[in-house]
């Protein structure tokens, strides 16, 4: 009887033992993406260095572009140029920019942002120096066109900054880059006021080439984009870059293994016109074209208003010499006075005036609504330029216009860099920059030719384009505020 009673106990005990010791299950290894690493590492000393070095590309670009505004009166006199010839210089610079922008975008998505940025700076510095030795107007136009080709690659600096910045800092750090454009604009105007009257415009171009040459040396401290490296399968290089950034920021890397899909289809133009991005791409192109048209229009119009006094329909100033048979020439030979340089400096400072409000708008209202508001205000202030006012009133209107068009550029730069995935981000920026230059190519003929024939007509044209851009910005299908950068489409 005892044996029979103990058997069930033995069986139950064995069952409990078997249930209490399950077979061990294999544990899954942890992984992370570049986006995870960027967010985990956070903002630190590396990003400050990145901001200073890549932001300084704006100094160089601004100096090369603004150079045209301060040199135009001098070459008009030296080579006895007509209005359309002066306008053609700016147009050809932007034609070079337009052609090369798409090419650099394609190459940057396939071979790397850093390489293309370096090549573009070497190219631009070389041809900028050659421009100072131009023996004739034709050579000057050709060499400045080559400079435009080089400047088009500077946008890769913005892309590198965007791809390394944590999401919550992009809306603040990228608009602050406007400080560098402002610094470049003020520097070239200040240099022109001293160098041109004393040793001539050729030395101004040589001096203006120095910042670009210095910056080429500084590029060695900035690595290739980790997002680009993982897209090409170079995970080890991306990991080494991220670990270096973490050490510099005194931060920690995420636990696990860096894993990202290899993206062989990169930098394809067809992807921009894919159904997912078609509407976004077309509207972005319209906005870029319109913003550039308004931006360079007001820069060149500022110079024309000062050089030839077109405000309120007054007649252009022409320097005439008694008994000089060339005094009846249609060419205007009026050099900038010191007060004109001061007015240009004041209006240029306007580019930073709305930066705090622009940052608040971008981060709280979103990219789309913020852009549509500033574009609408730009349209209004173009029309206000037709009001007959004092010199102080003109400076005030120019100041606000420069502030608004700079805010427009800030917002569309950020939006374009954020909305496209890594596989076509550089191409998206490149094609946008290319379309942008169409507006810049047309602007000189409106600001320097049509404005002298019909001041109000030119202002209405600028204003109408800004209204179209405001509507296009408001109806963009994707909002990028708080959105992580996409790796694949």
Structure description:
By secondary structure, this protein is mostly helical. It has 2 domains: 31-263, MFS general substrate transporter like domains (Growth Hormone, Chain: A, Up-down Bundle), CATH 1.20.1250.20; 268-312 and 335-488, MFS general substrate transporter like domains (Growth Hormone, Chain: A, Up-down Bundle). It is built from 22 helices and 2 strands. It has helices at 2-20, 34-41, 45-55, 57-78, 83-111, 113-131, 137-151, 155-164, 167-176, 178-199, 201-208, 210-218, 226-231, 235-249, 269-272, 278-308, 338-353, 355-365, 367-384, 391-419, 425-453, 455-474, and strands spanning 31-32, 257-258. It has a two-stranded parallel ribbon. Helix 3 packs antiparallel against helix 8. The longest helix is centred in the middle third of the chain and has 31 residues, at 278-308. It is globular and about 75 Å long.
Provide the spatial order of strands within the biggest beta sheet.
1-2
β-strand amount: under 5%
Termini, distance in Å?
A: 77 Å
Quaternary state, please? single chain
Helix content: over 70%
Mean pLDDT: 82
Morphology: globular
The count of helical stretches stands at 22
If you consult CATH, what is the topology of the largest domain? Growth Hormone, Chain: A
CATH architecture of the largest domain: Up-down Bundle
- Give me the Rg, rounded: 28 Å
The description of the largest β-sheet is: 2 strands, parallel
Which CATH class of the largest domain is shown? Mainly Alpha
- Model regions low in confidence, pLDDT < 50 over at least 5 residues: 6-20, 313-331
Structural class: mainly alpha
Subcellular location: Membrane
Organism: Propithecus coquereli (Coquerel's sifaka)
Transmembrane segments: 48-72, 84-104, 116-138, 179-196, 282-306, 453-476
Family: Belongs to the major facilitator superfamily.
């Amino acid at each position: 009887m005892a044996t029979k009673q103990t058997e069930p106990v033995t069986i139950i005990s064995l069952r409990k033992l078997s249930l209490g010791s399950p077979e061990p299950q294999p544990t899954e290894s942890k992984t992370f993406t570049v986006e995870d690493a960027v967010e985990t590492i956070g903002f630190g000393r590396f990003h400050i260095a990145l901001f200073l070095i890549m932001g300084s590309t704006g100094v160089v670009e601004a100096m090369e572009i603004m150079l045209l505004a301060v040199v135009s009166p001098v070459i008009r006199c030296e080579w006895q140029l007509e209005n359309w010839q002066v306008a053609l210089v700016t147009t050809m610079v932007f034609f070079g920019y337009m052609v090369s922008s798409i090419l650099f975008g394609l190459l940057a998505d396939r071979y790397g942002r850093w390489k293309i940025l370096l090549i573009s700076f070497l190219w631009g510095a070389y041809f900028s120096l050659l421009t100072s030795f131009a023996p004739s107007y034709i050579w000057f136009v050709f060499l400045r066109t080559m400079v435009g080709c080089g400047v088009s690659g500077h946008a890769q600096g913005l892309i590198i900054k965007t791809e390394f910045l944590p999401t919550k800092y992009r809306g603040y750090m990228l608009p602050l880059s406007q400080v560098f454009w402002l610094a470049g604009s003020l520097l070239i105007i200040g240099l022109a006021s001293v160098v041109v009257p004393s040793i001539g415009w050729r030395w101004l171009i040589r001096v203006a080439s120095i910042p670009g040459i210095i910056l080429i040396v500084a590029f060695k401290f900035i690595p290739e984009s980790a997002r680009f490296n993982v897209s090409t399968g170079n995970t080890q290089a991306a990991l080494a870059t991220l670990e270096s950034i973490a050490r510099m920021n005194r931060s920690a890397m995420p636990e696990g293994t860096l894993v990202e899909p290899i993206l062989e289809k990169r930098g394809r133009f067809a992807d921009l016109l894919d159904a997912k991005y078609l509407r976004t791409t077309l509207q972005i192109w319209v906005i870029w074209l319109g913003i550039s048209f308004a931006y360079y229009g007001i820069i060149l119009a500022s110079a024309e208003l000062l050089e030839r006094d077109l405000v309120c329909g007054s007649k252009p100033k022409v320097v005439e010499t008694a008994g000089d048979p060339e005094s009846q020439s249609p060419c205007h030979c009026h050099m900038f006075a010191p007060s004109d340089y001061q007015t240009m400096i004041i209006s240029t400072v306007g580019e930073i005036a709305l930066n705090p409000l622009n940052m608040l708008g971008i981060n709280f209202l979103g990219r789309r609504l913020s852009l549509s508001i500033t574009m609408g205000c730009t349209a209004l202030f173009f029309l206000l330029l037709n009001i007959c006012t004092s010199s102080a009133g003109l400076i005030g209107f120019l100041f606000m216009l420069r502030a608004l068009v700079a805010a427009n550029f800030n917002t569309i730069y950020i939006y374009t860099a954020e909305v496209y995935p890594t596989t076509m981000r550089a191409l998206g920026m490149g094609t946008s920059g290319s379309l942008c230059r169409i507006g810049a190519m047309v602007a000189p003929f409106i600001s320097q030719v049509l404005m002298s024939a019909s001041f109000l007509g030119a202002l209405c044209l600028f204003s109408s384009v800004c209204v179209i851009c405001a509507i296009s910005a408001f109806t963009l299908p994707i909002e990028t505020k708080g959105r992580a950068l996409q790796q694949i489409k």
